[in-house]
Amino acid sequence: MTTKYFDAHCHLQFPAFAEDREEVIARMEERGVAGVVVGCDYVSSQAAVALAERHEHLYAAIGLHPNHESEEAFDPAAYRALAASASAGGGSASGGKVVAIGECGLDYFRPEEVNEEVKEKQKTLLRSQIALAAELDKALIIHARPSKKTRDAYHDLIAILTEEKEQYPNLRGDIHFFVGGEEEMRALVALGLTVSYTAVVTFAREYDAAIGAAPLASLLAETDAPYVPPTSRGRGARNDPLAVEDVVAKLAEIRNEPLETVRQATVANATRLFGLAASPRG
Fold it and tell me: What is the assigned CATH class of domain 5-273?
């Protein structure tokens, strides 16, 4: 398949796609949309790998979301084995279908009570997954959601990544669903990470400054499907990876750059970050 668009973060294995999952995946192939199916715990990570192994244009990320920290004890050996089991599937430059560790990170928004104990547990979990990503030479897919009207999760994340980068100089990853400001964007890019935007950009304007200031080589597009549909889908609709086209078009409009320039860059950036075998671009 010629890759025309790349959805850096979707959840095709979730129940929202139970009735038409294969049809959506077939439409992605028809439109030239590749993507990473992202796990949030071990079970959903297994399902992500299973989908990626069946479809050439899909890849998998495996990891434990910070909001599941209390529900599952992170077992590096289990996730290591899952990554190894998919190594024969092909697709990445290293031959594996698992291209990232995640969705991992820090969430100070959802837990009922965010105290220092909760934060420390999330930080410990994140560091464990950073170590696994470094060991396996995989990118990270990082979830960071600050508490209301703050950017606290980003500030803690930057501090952790700054420390970990000293131990793991080749550390790389994407900040999924980035909603920080220009200052946070620049700090993360300086650490060698990319920032990824969803269809929120089709109806919210508060991220325009950071989008415009971000280096094009550090920019990814994603849908986070089935969540956050673009304005073209209507409020409350289920999202799907085909909406990455809307995201790329809006990023190009905000940046005042040609659509083709941004389209090709987001595909190239994902190919590089996830260590994929280069494919022709249409």
Answer: alpha beta
